[in-house]
Amino acid sequence: MPFSSQHLKAQAQAMGFNLVGITQAVSSPTLDAYYRWIDAGMHGKMGYLAREDRRIRRDDLNNIVDGAQSIVMVGLDYRSRIVPLSLLHDPTRGRIASYAWQLDYHDVIEPRLEDLASWMQAQIGEATSHKVYVDTGAVLERSHAQQAGMGFIGKNTMLIHPRRGSYFFLGEIISTIEFDSYDTPHRETMCGTCTRCLQACPTDAFPEPYVLDARRCISYHTIENKAWIDRELRAGFGNWVYGCDVCQEVCPFQRFSQATDDMSFYPPDDDAVAPHLTTLLTLTNDSFKARYANSPIYRIKRKRLVRNACIAVGNSGDRQFIPYLIQLLYDDEAIVRGHAAWALWQLMGRDALKQLQALYDREDDAEVRAEIEALVP
Questions:
Q1: Which of 7, 23, 24, 125 has the fewest C-beta atoms under 10 angstroms from its C-beta?
Q2: Taking a C-beta distance cutoff of 8 angstroms, is the pair 284, 87 a contact?
Q3: E strand map for the chain
Q4: β partners of residue 71
């Protein structure tokens, strides 16, 4: 007998999920557009997105869960306190995307989804199979959420709920359980003629509406990109050091966003929102781990966060950071030395020639040397 969708939704909401939708376990209607995006190389260096084994699973969800019947999509709000713009735009601080101000959302949502799946299993009273994902699986989450009636896809490629905005996480249970009813897909878009998100992007990462070129995206570079950040893009990063909220925060639908009741996502202090750049520049591996072990930021490790901080410092125009950058010219990580050299040049210009020449003379990393060569006329 099919399981009651209303019974499931009531339980999911009782467990703290703010949005719940159920759709059939069929492939996403936007798969062709996704593969065109991959073929255009707009996924950057996220090679895992193009892997054949993941394509097989996207094309047929039975390759994830044999006999899959349903996808239970959930949303969990993460907008917490309102932060003064003076703090967010302080050039001596490094700005962090709001979803990462506190605990790692995977650690919050995945166990809760497993509990929900176990509850369904107990209610059914017979063997079922499922798989839980929180942005880690070979599924197009936003598309499936739209099919589950949870919102529309905006021109910034985000899933937007017309009465909640887009400040919520997504997660899903792919299950062999069949439901007595499924949600009607939401309208594909409600953006109309609005282009605020496209115009606001500091690095022009949207070549057209509904298409994001990750190769120009601040979030991609500060989180996913493990290598050197393109010099032409760095000035557009401003003081962002982890992620970016710009294309979300300018969206008119955000006026309907609601503060979460889940304290897991509330920052303990201002430094969790926008830490002082001196704090980031002086991180060691140990102090990085102590500070970010339970945060999404932990995934990028110390060297990438310091790399990002160097770019923010270079954009700050504040010469107080010069001694910290000079110290980083001796860092163990080549990617840190190279980005510190760039930042030093932004703050000192030709006055940095002595330090950069000294680094060049002792440097054995080709990319660091190339960075200095590109800086010095």
A1: 125
A2: no
A3: 19-24, 70-77, 95-96, 130-133, 152-153, 159-160, 168-175, 240-242
A4: 23, 174
Question: CA 224 to CA 217: how far, in whole Å?
Answer: 10
What are the tens digits of pLDDT across the range 182-192?
Answer: 999 999 999 99
Strand 159-160 versus strand 19-24 pairing type: unpaired
Catalytic residue among 32, 53, 66, 135: 135
Work out the number of other CB atoms within 10 angstroms of the CB of residue 89.
12
> What's the Rg (C-alpha) of the chain?
23
Q: Tokens 């057209």 map to which residue?
A: 208
Which of 345, 283, 335, 274 is closest to 314 using CA atoms? 345
* First-last CA distance in the chain: 74
Instruction: Tell me the two tokens of residue 254.
Output: 């955000």
Predicted confidence at residue 259, as pLDDT, reads 92
Please say if 135 is a catalytic residue. Answer: yes
Residue 327 neighbours by CB distance under 10 Å = 12
The pLDDT value recorded for residue 128 is: 93
Helix (H) or strand (E) holding 370: helix 366-375
Query: What would the two tokens of residue 302 be?
Result: 């110390």
